Amino acid sequence: MISVRFDSVGGDRSLLAGFRVSGHSGTRGDSVVCAAVSSACYMAANTLTDVQMLCPDIALRNGYMKLTLGGADIPAAQVILQGLRIHLEQLAEQYPKEIKIEFSEVQ
Question: How sure is the predictor about 13, in pLDDT bands with cuts at 50, 70 and 90?
Fold first, then answer.
């Protein structure tokens, strides 16, 4: 199962500060669901860094991505992060046994 956790500021899901994605779906970890989630997360990260020129902290390893924004970068990143949230929520509706989405509050 793929676990997605969005970090929201003050518990308000309309103000996201980052996300974490971990795990794999499918028996071999190479399913279309994994590819869809990975592609969406990389597109979000690349858009934030290379198009918007923001400076998130990013951690990557096999089956794991964490992206954290701070300060003035948080409001600037909302269109991309909210788009990612909607995209992943729709995938989770289609594949409820493959993707789990949670929210956690950050200060």
Answer: confident
